[in-house]
Amino acid sequence: MNLYSLGQYALFVLVVLACVKPLGRYLQRVFDGERTLLDPLLRPVERGIYRLAGVRPEQGMSWSEYASAFVLFSCGGMLLLYLLLRIQPLLHSFDPLFQPVPLAPNLAMNTAISFATTTTWQSYGGETTMSYVSQIVGLAAQNFLAGAAGLAVGIAFIRGLSSDRAATLGNFWVDVVRAVLWVLLPLAVVLTLALVWQGVPLNVQPYQTVPLLQPTRDGTGAPVSEQVLPQGPVAALEAIKNLGTNGGGFFNVNGAHPYANPTPLSNFLGMLAIVLVPAALTHTFGLKLGRPSQGWMLFSIMTALFITGLLLCDWAEQSGNPRIAELGVNTLVAAGHTGGNMEGKETRFGIGSSVLAAITTSNGATGSYNSMHDSYMPLGGAVPLVNMLLGEIVFGGLGSGIYSIVFVMLIGVFVAGLMIGRTPEFLGKQITVTEMKLIGLYTVMAPLATLTLTAVAVTTVAGQGALYHAGYPFTTIYNPGPHGFTEVFYAYTSAVANNGQNFAGLGANNPFYNVSLVIAMMIGRFGLAVPALALAGVFAQQKCKPPTPGTLATDSPLFGMFTIGIVLIVGVLSYLPALALGPIIEHIRL
After folding, report:
1. Does residue 27 sit in helix, strand or coil?
2. Which of 303, 313, 298 is nearest to 359 (CA)?
3. Residue 1 pLDDT > 70, yes or no?
4. CB atoms within 10 A of CB 546
5. Angle at 270 between CA 269 and CA 272, to 5 degrees
6. Taking the model in full, what pTM does it have?
7. How many other CB atoms are found less than 10 A from the CB of residue 243?
8. Which DSSP string do the residues of 72-95 spell out, in sequence order?
9. At 300, is the secondary structure helix, strand, or coil?
10. pLDDT digit string (tens) for 271-328?
Protein backbone atom coordinates (compact mmCIF):
# COMPACT_ATOMS: atom_id res chain seq x y z
CA MET A 1 0.00 0.00 0.00
CA ASN A 2 1.34 3.47 -0.87
CA LEU A 3 0.77 6.66 1.11
CA TYR A 4 -1.56 8.13 -1.51
CA SER A 5 -3.93 5.18 -1.25
CA LEU A 6 -3.77 5.12 2.53
CA GLY A 7 -4.48 8.86 2.71
CA GLN A 8 -7.41 8.53 0.33
CA TYR A 9 -8.94 5.70 2.35
CA ALA A 10 -8.51 7.59 5.62
CA LEU A 11 -10.03 10.78 4.17
CA PHE A 12 -13.00 8.85 2.81
CA VAL A 13 -13.78 7.22 6.16
CA LEU A 14 -13.39 10.54 8.00
CA VAL A 15 -15.75 12.38 5.62
CA VAL A 16 -18.36 9.65 6.03
CA LEU A 17 -17.96 9.81 9.81
CA ALA A 18 -18.38 13.59 9.80
CA CYS A 19 -21.62 13.37 7.77
CA VAL A 20 -23.33 10.54 9.68
CA LYS A 21 -24.73 12.61 12.54
CA PRO A 22 -26.12 15.67 10.68
CA LEU A 23 -27.49 13.62 7.79
CA GLY A 24 -28.93 11.00 10.14
CA ARG A 25 -30.68 13.72 12.11
CA TYR A 26 -32.01 15.22 8.88
CA LEU A 27 -33.44 11.87 7.78
CA GLN A 28 -35.14 11.45 11.14
CA ARG A 29 -36.77 14.89 10.83
CA VAL A 30 -37.90 14.24 7.25
CA PHE A 31 -39.63 10.93 7.92
CA ASP A 32 -41.09 12.04 11.23
CA GLY A 33 -42.69 14.99 9.42
CA GLU A 34 -40.73 17.59 11.38
CA ARG A 35 -39.86 20.96 9.88
CA THR A 36 -36.82 21.32 7.60
CA LEU A 37 -35.33 24.16 5.57
CA LEU A 38 -36.79 22.71 2.36
CA ASP A 39 -40.38 22.68 3.64
CA PRO A 40 -41.54 26.02 2.16
CA LEU A 41 -40.57 24.79 -1.30
CA LEU A 42 -41.51 21.11 -1.05
CA ARG A 43 -44.62 20.99 1.16
CA PRO A 44 -46.94 22.38 -1.56
CA VAL A 45 -45.50 19.87 -4.04
CA GLU A 46 -46.06 17.06 -1.54
CA ARG A 47 -49.68 18.05 -0.92
CA GLY A 48 -50.29 18.27 -4.67
CA ILE A 49 -48.96 14.76 -5.19
CA TYR A 50 -51.21 13.40 -2.43
CA ARG A 51 -54.30 15.06 -3.93
CA LEU A 52 -53.44 13.84 -7.42
CA ALA A 53 -52.78 10.26 -6.26
CA GLY A 54 -55.60 10.11 -3.70
CA VAL A 55 -53.21 9.43 -0.81
CA ARG A 56 -54.36 10.01 2.77
CA PRO A 57 -51.06 10.73 4.54
CA GLU A 58 -52.50 10.35 8.03
CA GLN A 59 -53.58 6.75 7.38
CA GLY A 60 -51.06 4.18 8.61
CA MET A 61 -50.44 0.75 7.13
CA SER A 62 -49.93 -2.62 8.75
CA TRP A 63 -46.80 -4.50 7.73
CA SER A 64 -48.75 -6.57 5.19
CA GLU A 65 -50.34 -3.48 3.65
CA TYR A 66 -46.96 -1.73 3.57
CA ALA A 67 -45.34 -4.76 1.92
CA SER A 68 -48.17 -5.05 -0.61
CA ALA A 69 -47.82 -1.39 -1.57
CA PHE A 70 -44.04 -1.82 -1.92
CA VAL A 71 -44.38 -4.87 -4.18
CA LEU A 72 -47.17 -3.35 -6.31
CA PHE A 73 -45.26 -0.08 -6.70
CA SER A 74 -42.15 -1.95 -7.81
CA CYS A 75 -44.06 -4.19 -10.22
CA GLY A 76 -45.75 -1.16 -11.75
CA GLY A 77 -42.35 0.39 -12.36
CA MET A 78 -41.13 -2.83 -13.97
CA LEU A 79 -44.07 -2.97 -16.35
CA LEU A 80 -43.84 0.67 -17.43
CA LEU A 81 -40.09 0.43 -18.04
CA TYR A 82 -40.51 -2.82 -19.97
CA LEU A 83 -43.07 -1.19 -22.29
CA LEU A 84 -40.84 1.84 -22.77
CA LEU A 85 -37.88 -0.32 -23.77
CA ARG A 86 -39.99 -2.31 -26.21
CA ILE A 87 -41.33 0.78 -28.04
CA GLN A 88 -37.97 2.57 -27.96
CA PRO A 89 -37.67 3.09 -31.75
CA LEU A 90 -40.91 5.10 -31.74
CA LEU A 91 -39.46 7.65 -29.32
CA HIS A 92 -37.33 10.66 -30.23
CA SER A 93 -33.65 9.80 -29.83
CA PHE A 94 -32.23 13.36 -30.24
CA ASP A 95 -29.88 11.99 -32.91
CA PRO A 96 -31.09 11.30 -36.48
CA LEU A 97 -28.09 9.03 -37.10
CA PHE A 98 -28.69 6.95 -33.98
CA GLN A 99 -31.97 5.07 -34.04
CA PRO A 100 -31.99 2.39 -31.33
CA VAL A 101 -33.80 -0.87 -31.93
CA PRO A 102 -36.32 -2.40 -29.52
CA LEU A 103 -34.75 -4.61 -26.89
CA ALA A 104 -35.41 -8.34 -27.19
CA PRO A 105 -38.23 -9.41 -24.84
CA ASN A 106 -35.96 -11.31 -22.44
CA LEU A 107 -33.39 -8.49 -22.36
CA ALA A 108 -36.10 -5.84 -21.87
CA MET A 109 -37.57 -7.90 -19.02
CA ASN A 110 -34.15 -8.33 -17.41
CA THR A 111 -33.36 -4.62 -17.71
CA ALA A 112 -36.75 -3.45 -16.43
CA ILE A 113 -36.67 -5.72 -13.39
CA SER A 114 -33.03 -4.97 -12.68
CA PHE A 115 -33.67 -1.20 -12.53
CA ALA A 116 -36.90 -1.57 -10.56
CA THR A 117 -35.08 -3.67 -7.94
CA THR A 118 -32.05 -1.29 -7.81
CA THR A 119 -29.89 -4.10 -9.22
CA THR A 120 -29.30 -2.41 -12.58
CA TRP A 121 -27.64 -5.46 -14.08
CA GLN A 122 -26.62 -4.39 -17.57
CA SER A 123 -26.41 -6.95 -20.35
CA TYR A 124 -26.28 -4.16 -22.94
CA GLY A 125 -24.13 -1.21 -23.95
CA GLY A 126 -25.94 1.91 -22.79
CA GLU A 127 -24.58 4.34 -25.38
CA THR A 128 -25.32 1.98 -28.30
CA THR A 129 -28.58 0.41 -27.08
CA MET A 130 -30.59 3.11 -25.33
CA SER A 131 -32.13 6.35 -26.59
CA TYR A 132 -32.02 9.56 -24.58
CA VAL A 133 -35.70 9.12 -23.73
CA SER A 134 -35.07 5.62 -22.43
CA GLN A 135 -32.17 6.83 -20.33
CA ILE A 136 -33.99 9.85 -18.87
CA VAL A 137 -37.66 8.86 -18.64
CA GLY A 138 -37.07 5.18 -18.07
CA LEU A 139 -33.78 4.35 -16.36
CA ALA A 140 -33.11 7.58 -14.43
CA ALA A 141 -36.71 7.77 -13.22
CA GLN A 142 -36.54 4.20 -11.92
CA ASN A 143 -33.29 5.04 -10.15
CA PHE A 144 -35.21 7.67 -8.17
CA LEU A 145 -38.34 5.64 -7.55
CA ALA A 146 -36.75 2.28 -6.78
CA GLY A 147 -34.19 3.91 -4.51
CA ALA A 148 -36.95 5.80 -2.68
CA ALA A 149 -38.98 2.61 -2.25
CA GLY A 150 -36.00 0.85 -0.70
CA LEU A 151 -35.37 3.76 1.65
CA ALA A 152 -39.05 3.72 2.65
CA VAL A 153 -38.80 0.05 3.62
CA GLY A 154 -35.74 0.80 5.74
CA ILE A 155 -37.56 3.62 7.52
CA ALA A 156 -40.58 1.39 8.14
CA PHE A 157 -38.28 -1.25 9.61
CA ILE A 158 -36.78 1.30 11.98
CA ARG A 159 -40.27 2.44 13.01
CA GLY A 160 -41.28 -1.12 13.77
CA LEU A 161 -38.34 -1.73 16.09
CA SER A 162 -38.79 1.61 17.86
CA SER A 163 -42.59 1.41 18.27
CA ASP A 164 -44.45 0.33 21.41
CA ARG A 165 -47.69 -1.60 20.85
CA ALA A 166 -48.22 -0.07 17.40
CA ALA A 167 -50.39 -1.63 14.71
CA THR A 168 -48.87 0.23 11.75
CA LEU A 169 -45.47 1.00 10.23
CA GLY A 170 -46.37 4.32 8.63
CA ASN A 171 -47.63 5.06 5.13
CA PHE A 172 -45.60 3.71 2.21
CA TRP A 173 -46.72 6.41 -0.22
CA VAL A 174 -45.81 9.21 2.18
CA ASP A 175 -42.39 7.69 2.80
CA VAL A 176 -41.69 7.32 -0.94
CA VAL A 177 -42.71 10.91 -1.69
CA ARG A 178 -40.55 12.27 1.12
CA ALA A 179 -37.62 10.08 0.11
CA VAL A 180 -37.74 11.50 -3.41
CA LEU A 181 -38.46 15.15 -2.62
CA TRP A 182 -36.46 15.72 0.57
CA VAL A 183 -33.58 13.25 0.16
CA LEU A 184 -32.76 12.00 -3.33
CA LEU A 185 -33.75 15.01 -5.44
CA PRO A 186 -31.79 17.71 -3.52
CA LEU A 187 -28.71 15.50 -3.23
CA ALA A 188 -28.93 14.59 -6.92
CA VAL A 189 -29.08 18.24 -7.99
CA VAL A 190 -26.00 19.11 -5.93
CA LEU A 191 -24.03 16.08 -7.14
CA THR A 192 -25.05 16.63 -10.77
CA LEU A 193 -23.71 20.18 -10.68
CA ALA A 194 -20.48 18.95 -9.09
CA LEU A 195 -20.05 16.33 -11.83
CA VAL A 196 -20.66 18.91 -14.57
CA TRP A 197 -17.96 21.03 -12.92
CA GLN A 198 -15.63 18.04 -13.18
CA GLY A 199 -16.35 17.64 -16.90
CA VAL A 200 -19.21 15.14 -17.10
CA PRO A 201 -21.54 15.96 -20.06
CA LEU A 202 -25.12 17.09 -19.47
CA ASN A 203 -26.82 17.75 -22.80
CA VAL A 204 -29.16 16.29 -25.40
CA GLN A 205 -26.89 16.88 -28.39
CA PRO A 206 -26.31 14.39 -31.22
CA TYR A 207 -23.31 12.10 -30.92
CA GLN A 208 -20.11 13.75 -32.17
CA THR A 209 -17.97 12.23 -34.94
CA VAL A 210 -14.28 13.12 -34.80
CA PRO A 211 -11.35 12.06 -37.05
CA LEU A 212 -8.72 9.79 -35.54
CA LEU A 213 -5.17 11.06 -35.33
CA GLN A 214 -4.00 7.61 -36.37
CA PRO A 215 -6.32 5.44 -38.49
CA THR A 216 -6.82 1.88 -37.28
CA ARG A 217 -8.84 -1.23 -38.16
CA ASP A 218 -11.94 -2.76 -36.60
CA GLY A 219 -12.45 -6.40 -35.62
CA THR A 220 -13.15 -7.43 -39.23
CA GLY A 221 -10.00 -5.78 -40.55
CA ALA A 222 -11.80 -2.86 -42.21
CA PRO A 223 -10.05 0.53 -41.94
CA VAL A 224 -11.42 3.02 -39.39
CA SER A 225 -10.58 6.73 -39.66
CA GLU A 226 -13.11 8.31 -37.29
CA GLN A 227 -14.74 7.73 -33.93
CA VAL A 228 -18.23 8.46 -32.59
CA LEU A 229 -18.24 10.17 -29.19
CA PRO A 230 -21.53 9.66 -27.29
CA GLN A 231 -23.17 12.68 -25.71
CA GLY A 232 -26.23 12.95 -23.49
CA PRO A 233 -27.50 13.80 -19.99
CA VAL A 234 -24.72 11.74 -18.43
CA ALA A 235 -24.24 13.77 -15.23
CA ALA A 236 -27.90 13.48 -14.25
CA LEU A 237 -27.92 9.70 -14.56
CA GLU A 238 -24.52 9.29 -12.91
CA ALA A 239 -25.64 11.25 -9.84
CA ILE A 240 -28.80 9.32 -9.07
CA LYS A 241 -27.32 5.92 -9.94
CA ASN A 242 -24.97 6.34 -6.97
CA LEU A 243 -27.32 8.15 -4.61
CA GLY A 244 -30.05 5.57 -5.22
CA THR A 245 -27.52 2.73 -4.83
CA ASN A 246 -28.51 1.54 -8.30
CA GLY A 247 -25.29 1.58 -10.32
CA GLY A 248 -26.54 1.37 -13.90
CA GLY A 249 -24.20 3.48 -16.03
CA PHE A 250 -24.92 5.64 -19.07
CA PHE A 251 -22.01 3.91 -20.80
CA ASN A 252 -21.17 0.25 -21.23
CA VAL A 253 -18.00 0.49 -19.13
CA ASN A 254 -19.83 2.45 -16.42
CA GLY A 255 -17.57 4.56 -14.18
CA ALA A 256 -14.45 3.59 -16.14
CA HIS A 257 -15.60 5.84 -19.02
CA PRO A 258 -13.86 9.25 -18.99
CA TYR A 259 -17.15 11.04 -19.69
CA ALA A 260 -18.88 9.38 -16.75
CA ASN A 261 -16.03 9.62 -14.26
CA PRO A 262 -13.27 11.90 -15.54
CA THR A 263 -11.22 12.68 -12.42
CA PRO A 264 -10.21 11.21 -9.05
CA LEU A 265 -12.41 13.88 -7.43
CA SER A 266 -15.50 12.83 -9.40
CA ASN A 267 -14.73 9.25 -8.36
CA PHE A 268 -14.42 10.27 -4.70
CA LEU A 269 -17.72 12.19 -4.81
CA GLY A 270 -19.45 9.26 -6.46
CA MET A 271 -18.29 6.87 -3.76
CA LEU A 272 -19.47 9.28 -1.04
CA ALA A 273 -22.87 9.45 -2.73
CA ILE A 274 -23.17 5.67 -2.43
CA VAL A 275 -22.31 5.49 1.26
CA LEU A 276 -23.60 8.63 2.97
CA VAL A 277 -27.35 7.96 3.22
CA PRO A 278 -27.05 4.25 4.18
CA ALA A 279 -24.39 5.14 6.76
CA ALA A 280 -26.50 7.99 8.17
CA LEU A 281 -29.44 5.61 8.65
CA THR A 282 -27.52 4.04 11.54
CA HIS A 283 -27.76 7.34 13.41
CA THR A 284 -31.42 7.70 12.41
CA PHE A 285 -31.92 4.24 13.89
CA GLY A 286 -30.31 5.29 17.17
CA LEU A 287 -32.34 8.51 17.36
CA LYS A 288 -35.64 6.73 16.77
CA LEU A 289 -34.83 4.24 19.52
CA GLY A 290 -33.72 6.98 21.89
CA ARG A 291 -30.39 5.14 22.05
CA PRO A 292 -27.82 6.92 19.86
CA SER A 293 -25.13 4.55 21.13
CA GLN A 294 -26.95 1.67 19.40
CA GLY A 295 -26.70 3.48 16.08
CA TRP A 296 -23.03 4.23 16.59
CA MET A 297 -22.41 0.56 17.36
CA LEU A 298 -23.95 -0.42 14.01
CA PHE A 299 -21.85 2.19 12.25
CA SER A 300 -18.70 0.95 14.00
CA ILE A 301 -19.32 -2.63 12.88
CA MET A 302 -19.90 -1.49 9.31
CA THR A 303 -16.80 0.70 9.30
CA ALA A 304 -14.57 -2.02 10.75
CA LEU A 305 -15.63 -4.47 8.03
CA PHE A 306 -15.32 -1.76 5.37
CA ILE A 307 -11.75 -0.89 6.36
CA THR A 308 -10.81 -4.57 6.53
CA GLY A 309 -12.06 -5.08 2.98
CA LEU A 310 -10.17 -2.01 1.75
CA LEU A 311 -6.87 -3.17 3.22
CA LEU A 312 -7.21 -6.76 2.00
CA CYS A 313 -8.16 -5.79 -1.56
CA ASP A 314 -5.44 -3.13 -1.71
CA TRP A 315 -2.84 -5.65 -0.49
CA ALA A 316 -3.91 -8.23 -3.07
CA GLU A 317 -3.81 -5.76 -5.97
CA GLN A 318 -0.67 -3.93 -4.87
CA SER A 319 1.21 -7.25 -4.50
CA GLY A 320 0.74 -7.89 -8.19
CA ASN A 321 0.77 -11.10 -10.19
CA PRO A 322 3.65 -13.44 -9.25
CA ARG A 323 3.53 -15.02 -12.73
CA ILE A 324 4.31 -11.62 -14.26
CA ALA A 325 7.00 -10.88 -11.68
CA GLU A 326 8.71 -14.15 -12.67
CA LEU A 327 9.13 -12.71 -16.17
CA GLY A 328 11.26 -9.90 -14.76
CA VAL A 329 8.53 -7.24 -14.76
CA ASN A 330 8.81 -4.81 -11.83
CA THR A 331 5.64 -5.00 -9.73
CA LEU A 332 6.94 -2.86 -6.86
CA VAL A 333 6.04 0.76 -6.20
CA ALA A 334 8.70 3.11 -7.59
CA ALA A 335 9.03 6.69 -8.81
CA GLY A 336 6.68 7.08 -11.75
CA HIS A 337 5.50 3.48 -11.40
CA THR A 338 2.50 2.34 -9.37
CA GLY A 339 3.52 -1.29 -9.28
CA GLY A 340 1.01 -4.01 -8.46
CA ASN A 341 -1.71 -5.34 -10.75
CA MET A 342 -2.83 -2.55 -13.09
CA GLU A 343 -4.64 -4.83 -15.54
CA GLY A 344 -8.19 -3.61 -16.09
CA LYS A 345 -7.62 -0.35 -14.18
CA GLU A 346 -7.63 3.22 -15.45
CA THR A 347 -4.30 5.00 -15.05
CA ARG A 348 -6.09 8.16 -13.93
CA PHE A 349 -7.35 6.23 -10.88
CA GLY A 350 -4.59 3.73 -10.22
CA ILE A 351 -4.93 0.98 -7.67
CA GLY A 352 -6.06 3.20 -4.77
CA SER A 353 -9.14 4.78 -6.35
CA SER A 354 -10.01 1.54 -8.13
CA VAL A 355 -9.96 -0.45 -4.89
CA LEU A 356 -11.96 2.26 -3.09
CA ALA A 357 -14.64 2.01 -5.79
CA ALA A 358 -14.63 -1.80 -5.77
CA ILE A 359 -15.10 -2.03 -2.01
CA THR A 360 -17.60 0.83 -1.78
CA THR A 361 -19.82 -0.40 -4.60
CA SER A 362 -19.74 -4.04 -3.52
CA ASN A 363 -20.71 -3.05 0.02
CA GLY A 364 -23.17 -0.39 -1.05
CA ALA A 365 -25.36 -2.58 -3.31
CA THR A 366 -24.52 -0.28 -6.21
CA GLY A 367 -22.23 -2.02 -8.68
CA SER A 368 -21.02 1.24 -10.20
CA TYR A 369 -17.51 0.04 -11.01
CA ASN A 370 -14.57 2.04 -12.42
CA SER A 371 -12.30 -0.93 -13.12
CA MET A 372 -12.73 -4.44 -14.44
CA HIS A 373 -13.05 -6.74 -11.42
CA ASP A 374 -12.62 -9.72 -13.74
CA SER A 375 -8.96 -8.64 -14.07
CA TYR A 376 -8.31 -8.40 -10.33
CA MET A 377 -6.08 -10.91 -8.60
CA PRO A 378 -8.01 -13.93 -7.28
CA LEU A 379 -8.03 -12.67 -3.69
CA GLY A 380 -8.57 -9.08 -4.80
CA GLY A 381 -11.68 -10.09 -6.73
CA ALA A 382 -12.78 -12.30 -3.85
CA VAL A 383 -13.12 -9.30 -1.50
CA PRO A 384 -16.00 -7.58 -3.37
CA LEU A 385 -17.53 -11.03 -3.90
CA VAL A 386 -17.47 -11.72 -0.15
CA ASN A 387 -18.84 -8.23 0.54
CA MET A 388 -21.92 -9.08 -1.51
CA LEU A 389 -22.21 -12.56 -0.02
CA LEU A 390 -22.38 -11.07 3.49
CA GLY A 391 -25.71 -9.55 2.51
CA GLU A 392 -25.36 -5.76 2.31
CA ILE A 393 -24.50 -5.45 6.01
CA VAL A 394 -21.72 -2.90 5.39
CA PHE A 395 -23.67 0.30 4.65
CA GLY A 396 -25.67 -1.60 2.01
CA GLY A 397 -28.39 -0.23 -0.21
CA LEU A 398 -30.94 2.41 0.66
CA GLY A 399 -32.93 0.85 3.48
CA SER A 400 -31.64 -2.68 2.95
CA GLY A 401 -28.37 -1.99 4.71
CA ILE A 402 -29.98 -1.12 8.03
CA TYR A 403 -32.26 -4.13 8.24
CA SER A 404 -29.54 -6.49 6.98
CA ILE A 405 -27.13 -5.59 9.81
CA VAL A 406 -29.94 -5.72 12.38
CA PHE A 407 -30.86 -9.25 11.26
CA VAL A 408 -27.27 -10.32 11.89
CA MET A 409 -27.38 -8.69 15.32
CA LEU A 410 -30.59 -10.58 16.08
CA ILE A 411 -28.84 -13.87 15.32
CA GLY A 412 -26.11 -12.78 17.73
CA VAL A 413 -28.68 -11.93 20.40
CA PHE A 414 -30.32 -15.33 19.98
CA VAL A 415 -26.99 -17.19 20.21
CA ALA A 416 -25.92 -15.11 23.22
CA GLY A 417 -29.25 -15.81 24.90
CA LEU A 418 -28.72 -19.54 24.48
CA MET A 419 -25.23 -19.23 25.94
CA ILE A 420 -26.39 -17.48 29.12
CA GLY A 421 -29.74 -19.26 29.48
CA ARG A 422 -32.00 -16.21 29.04
CA THR A 423 -34.89 -15.50 26.69
CA PRO A 424 -33.31 -13.46 23.89
CA GLU A 425 -34.29 -9.77 23.91
CA PHE A 426 -33.39 -6.93 21.58
CA LEU A 427 -34.18 -3.32 22.45
CA GLY A 428 -36.72 -4.43 25.04
CA LYS A 429 -38.52 -6.78 22.62
CA GLN A 430 -38.52 -10.57 23.09
CA ILE A 431 -37.32 -12.81 20.28
CA THR A 432 -39.86 -15.62 20.31
CA VAL A 433 -40.57 -18.50 17.92
CA THR A 434 -42.31 -16.22 15.42
CA GLU A 435 -39.40 -13.80 15.27
CA MET A 436 -36.85 -16.60 14.93
CA LYS A 437 -38.76 -18.13 12.01
CA LEU A 438 -38.60 -14.83 10.18
CA ILE A 439 -34.92 -14.39 11.04
CA GLY A 440 -34.19 -17.94 9.87
CA LEU A 441 -36.11 -17.39 6.63
CA TYR A 442 -34.20 -14.19 5.96
CA THR A 443 -30.84 -15.85 6.72
CA VAL A 444 -31.25 -18.82 4.35
CA MET A 445 -32.99 -16.99 1.51
CA ALA A 446 -29.90 -15.46 -0.13
CA PRO A 447 -27.59 -18.54 0.15
CA LEU A 448 -30.34 -20.81 -1.13
CA ALA A 449 -31.00 -18.64 -4.18
CA THR A 450 -27.34 -17.88 -4.97
CA LEU A 451 -25.97 -21.40 -4.61
CA THR A 452 -28.89 -23.13 -6.33
CA LEU A 453 -28.82 -20.89 -9.39
CA THR A 454 -25.02 -21.11 -9.61
CA ALA A 455 -25.19 -24.90 -9.45
CA VAL A 456 -27.77 -25.02 -12.23
CA ALA A 457 -25.73 -22.66 -14.42
CA VAL A 458 -22.40 -24.48 -14.12
CA THR A 459 -23.94 -27.92 -14.69
CA THR A 460 -26.11 -27.18 -17.73
CA VAL A 461 -25.24 -26.53 -21.35
CA ALA A 462 -27.22 -23.27 -21.35
CA GLY A 463 -25.32 -21.94 -18.36
CA GLN A 464 -21.90 -23.09 -19.56
CA GLY A 465 -22.50 -21.53 -22.96
CA ALA A 466 -21.86 -18.05 -21.54
CA LEU A 467 -18.24 -19.07 -20.90
CA TYR A 468 -17.60 -19.90 -24.57
CA HIS A 469 -16.79 -17.65 -27.48
CA ALA A 470 -17.42 -18.66 -31.07
CA GLY A 471 -14.20 -17.21 -32.39
CA TYR A 472 -12.24 -17.75 -35.58
CA PRO A 473 -11.18 -20.35 -36.46
CA PHE A 474 -12.26 -22.47 -33.49
CA THR A 475 -14.76 -22.30 -30.67
CA THR A 476 -12.72 -21.38 -27.61
CA ILE A 477 -13.56 -21.16 -23.94
CA TYR A 478 -13.12 -18.05 -21.86
CA ASN A 479 -11.54 -18.60 -18.46
CA PRO A 480 -12.09 -22.31 -17.86
CA GLY A 481 -11.85 -23.81 -14.39
CA PRO A 482 -11.97 -21.80 -11.16
CA HIS A 483 -12.15 -18.39 -12.80
CA GLY A 484 -15.07 -19.38 -14.99
CA PHE A 485 -16.86 -20.73 -11.93
CA THR A 486 -16.21 -17.43 -10.13
CA GLU A 487 -17.70 -15.48 -13.03
CA VAL A 488 -20.95 -17.43 -12.78
CA PHE A 489 -20.99 -17.36 -8.97
CA TYR A 490 -20.26 -13.62 -9.01
CA ALA A 491 -23.20 -12.96 -11.36
CA TYR A 492 -25.80 -14.64 -9.18
CA THR A 493 -24.30 -13.21 -6.00
CA SER A 494 -24.53 -9.73 -7.52
CA ALA A 495 -28.13 -10.29 -8.62
CA VAL A 496 -29.32 -11.58 -5.24
CA ALA A 497 -27.52 -8.70 -3.51
CA ASN A 498 -29.28 -6.29 -5.93
CA ASN A 499 -25.83 -5.00 -6.77
CA GLY A 500 -25.41 -5.37 -10.54
CA GLN A 501 -21.63 -5.48 -10.99
CA ASN A 502 -20.11 -8.43 -12.81
CA PHE A 503 -17.03 -10.27 -13.93
CA ALA A 504 -17.09 -9.07 -17.52
CA GLY A 505 -15.85 -12.36 -19.00
CA LEU A 506 -19.33 -13.85 -18.64
CA GLY A 507 -21.46 -13.50 -21.77
CA ALA A 508 -24.75 -13.15 -19.92
CA ASN A 509 -26.94 -11.58 -22.63
CA ASN A 510 -28.85 -14.72 -23.54
CA PRO A 511 -32.28 -16.08 -22.55
CA PHE A 512 -30.91 -18.43 -19.85
CA TYR A 513 -29.08 -15.76 -17.88
CA ASN A 514 -31.58 -12.98 -18.58
CA VAL A 515 -34.33 -15.12 -17.03
CA SER A 516 -32.37 -16.81 -14.22
CA LEU A 517 -30.82 -13.53 -13.09
CA VAL A 518 -34.32 -12.05 -12.91
CA ILE A 519 -35.26 -14.80 -10.47
CA ALA A 520 -32.21 -13.93 -8.36
CA MET A 521 -33.03 -10.20 -8.42
CA MET A 522 -36.64 -10.74 -7.36
CA ILE A 523 -35.61 -12.98 -4.46
CA GLY A 524 -32.95 -10.51 -3.39
CA ARG A 525 -35.41 -7.61 -3.42
CA PHE A 526 -38.76 -9.00 -2.26
CA GLY A 527 -37.65 -12.24 -0.63
CA LEU A 528 -35.64 -10.21 1.88
CA ALA A 529 -37.65 -6.98 2.20
CA VAL A 530 -40.98 -8.68 2.94
CA PRO A 531 -39.63 -10.78 5.88
CA ALA A 532 -37.95 -7.61 7.17
CA LEU A 533 -41.28 -5.76 7.14
CA ALA A 534 -43.01 -8.74 8.74
CA LEU A 535 -40.45 -8.79 11.56
CA ALA A 536 -40.85 -5.04 12.02
CA GLY A 537 -44.62 -5.50 12.24
CA VAL A 538 -44.27 -8.22 14.90
CA PHE A 539 -41.84 -6.14 16.94
CA ALA A 540 -44.05 -3.04 16.64
CA GLN A 541 -46.93 -4.85 18.34
CA GLN A 542 -44.82 -5.83 21.35
CA LYS A 543 -44.59 -3.71 24.46
CA CYS A 544 -41.11 -2.34 24.99
CA LYS A 545 -39.74 -3.57 28.32
CA PRO A 546 -37.30 -1.44 30.31
CA PRO A 547 -33.76 -2.83 30.65
CA THR A 548 -32.81 -4.80 33.75
CA PRO A 549 -29.39 -5.64 35.25
CA GLY A 550 -29.52 -8.92 33.34
CA THR A 551 -30.31 -7.36 29.94
CA LEU A 552 -27.73 -8.04 27.24
CA ALA A 553 -26.10 -4.75 26.23
CA THR A 554 -26.19 -4.71 22.44
CA ASP A 555 -24.45 -1.34 22.16
CA SER A 556 -21.19 -2.41 23.82
CA PRO A 557 -17.86 -2.98 22.02
CA LEU A 558 -17.90 -6.59 23.22
CA PHE A 559 -21.22 -7.28 21.51
CA GLY A 560 -19.96 -5.46 18.42
CA MET A 561 -17.05 -7.89 18.17
CA PHE A 562 -19.43 -10.77 18.84
CA THR A 563 -21.62 -9.60 15.95
CA ILE A 564 -18.63 -9.50 13.60
CA GLY A 565 -17.90 -13.06 14.67
CA ILE A 566 -21.48 -14.06 13.82
CA VAL A 567 -21.09 -12.41 10.40
CA LEU A 568 -18.00 -14.47 9.66
CA ILE A 569 -19.46 -17.72 10.98
CA VAL A 570 -22.68 -17.42 8.95
CA GLY A 571 -20.71 -16.44 5.86
CA VAL A 572 -18.24 -19.33 6.18
CA LEU A 573 -20.96 -21.90 6.82
CA SER A 574 -22.95 -20.68 3.82
CA TYR A 575 -20.34 -20.00 1.17
CA LEU A 576 -16.89 -21.44 1.95
CA PRO A 577 -17.24 -24.48 -0.39
CA ALA A 578 -18.21 -22.21 -3.29
CA LEU A 579 -15.36 -19.80 -2.55
CA ALA A 580 -12.96 -22.74 -2.38
CA LEU A 581 -14.02 -23.83 -5.88
CA GLY A 582 -13.43 -20.32 -7.23
CA PRO A 583 -11.05 -17.62 -6.00
CA ILE A 584 -9.32 -19.65 -3.28
CA ILE A 585 -8.15 -22.46 -5.54
CA GLU A 586 -7.34 -19.93 -8.28
CA HIS A 587 -5.05 -18.12 -5.85
CA ILE A 588 -3.37 -21.37 -4.82
CA ARG A 589 -2.74 -22.25 -8.48
CA LEU A 590 -0.77 -19.04 -8.96
Report:
1. helix
2. 313
3. no
4. 6
5. 65
6. 0.92
7. 28
8. HHHHHHHHHHHHHHHTGGGS--S-
9. helix
10. 999 999 999 999 999 999 888 999 999 999 999 999 999 999 999 999 888 888 777 7
